[in-house]
Amino acid sequence: MKLPVYLYGHPVLRAACEPVKEDYPELKKLVADMYETMYASDGVGLAAPQIGRNITMVVIDADPVAETFPECKGRKMTVINPELEILDGEKVSRAEGCLSLPGISEDVKRVEHIRLKWFDEDFQPHEEEISGFLARIVQHELDHLDGHLYIDHISPLRKQFIRGKLHNIMEGKTRCEYPARYAPKKRR
What amino acid positions are annotated as catalytic residues? Predict the structure, then answer.
């Protein structure tokens, strides 16, 4: 089932996430719904907070960008309760976008070499060194689990340039091609 993507300004995107327990109700259905939502939204990653769940889980299918970034070929992963270790301190700047920030793209500096430990949807453990653009996707999605968005990594000046677009998303004035949940209106 396609779920609505929560957009910038919604408090769920800034809340801390809780670890997923093995007995999480209907976990496999939620994983399937997250993949369906991500594909319907033309994303390569989706974090649980983006569908209103404050749990430490993301889904990634980087294969659509494999022509440009070969390390992404065939890379589909469900990441539960991840632990991230930065392995390379040199940061590379690349454009990023986010389903929760429709119509905005900004350059973000991130490291390109990480180690990731996680569990899959069957609670089987995994550990892997990940490099290149796939490492960027992982870091972007894991940021969501800590209540961070990629725009938190841009300069205050760049934030000023996109302030109007951010305001429009929060006010529900931005439309996207997928089901979305806007921030609740503030009472005045």
Answer: 141
